[in-house]
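Why do we bother with holo predictions? Because pocket geometry can differ from the apo form. Keep that in mind while you read this record for S-adenosylmethionine.
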Amino acid sequence: MRLRNITGSREVIAACPYVVQEVLQRQCPGTWGRIFGNSHPIHIEIGMGKGRFIHTMAREHPDINYVGIEKYSSVLLRAIQKMEQEELPNLKFLRMDAEEIGEVFGTGEVERIYLNFSDPWPKDRHAKRRLPSREFLKRYDRILKPEGRLEFKTDNRPLFDFAVEELDPAGWKAEVLTYDLHGDPDLVQGNVMTEYEEKFSSMGNPICKYVIRR
Ligand code: SAM
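The structure, written out:
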């Protein structure tokens, strides 16, 4: 499938073999092994944007199945274009709002969740929309394996401080926590940069990261 000469991201997505189509999403819980054709662990990125991080991860870890989730068709299109250039059998996409994440994964079906440079939603009244909020942690709690981990990176310090404050009330603990990922020689080893990470770290912004568990 070539994207050249095709206008309309929704139409492209509807015809794309890398995307689990919306009409089929409700059938996904408990069936990801069948979708990928193997029983490898499932790692997901929520709000993947143009998909550089998850595409690189999928290339580097062929024994892990990756699912990239993105709300907007026009953005997902860019991740699809990367797959066109380099097709990877262990990467699929979902176009959906993460609020419905519990509708597409079964209980304990996911081994790792990545949140990278999530939208900050700075107004207090929008706090529930922040992907590391306690409301979202509750959703992740159900789909994540008991030994599963969630990783979050951002250069937005107020958002990161908020995310750290949400952990205790939601029953999660930080296993790794840094306010300067790129300045930590141990933690930065093997770090895969996202599009936003490259942009903001090149401007001199320190990158915060946590890895959490229940
Ligand atoms: N993760 C990428 C990176 O680090 O380069 C993109 C970061 S961008 C700031 C945040 C992305 O998350 C956007 O593409 C946005 O559309 C997506 N997003 C925000 N809220 C979402 C939600 N509730 N469900 C799915 N995607 C969402």
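The longest helix spans residues 157-170.
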